[in-house]
Design a protein that fits this description.
The structure is a single chain. The protein has 146 residues and is mainly α. It is built from seven helices and no strands. Helix 3 packs antiparallel against helix 4 and helix 5 runs antiparallel to helix 6. The N and C termini lie far apart (36 Å).
Length: 146
């Protein structure tokens, strides 16, 4: 397989999430009760299993590394489906600068963190490379701020 020159890679932007889901997510994130937050996020992914941001946030508030890994893995796979539906063919960019891409990238970073906690060093390395392939300017600190 021939590698595409960087200039020939498409910049994929995932579809924007409906405003009501985004509002519900914001409400869930401002809960002072971690269990209530998990329940609200679980309700969001049950209502719309394609809501990548909710999967990523659910992974971030998981009770343990295995639960985090499971939520992040589902979000990652749902994200790959979304990328393909948006025209991504295995190469191309999915940059953090596009807000609608952030849910997928959040799932990917949560998956990498959970894999590290579980001792899955090969997976940690693969995900790190994948993040930089998707966004050559990748910086982990962006996830913490958004």
């Amino acid at each position: 397989m021939t590698e595409l020159p960087l200039a020939d890679r498409a910049d994929v932007v995932l579809p924007v999430v409906a405003a009501d889901l985004k509002d519900a997510l914001e409400s869930a994130l401002f809960s002072d009760d971690p269990e209530a937050e998990r329940e609200a996020l679980s309700a969001l992914v049950a209502a719309d299993p394609a809501f990548l941001e909710a999967w990523g946030r659910l992974a971030e508030v998981a009770r343990d590394d295995v639960e985090c890994y499971a939520y992040a893995r589902v979000g990652y796979h749902r994200g790959l489906d979304a990328l393909r539906a948006a025209g991504w063919g295995g190469t191309g960019y999915c940059r953090w600068e596009h807000p609608s891409n952030r849910g997928f990238l959040r799932c990917l970073t949560a998956l990498r963190s959970a894999a590290a906690a579980l001792g899955e060093t090969d997976e940690v390395e693969r995900i790190g490379h994948f993040l930089h392939d998707l966004d050559p300017d990748w910086d982990d600190s962006v996830v913490d701020r958004s």
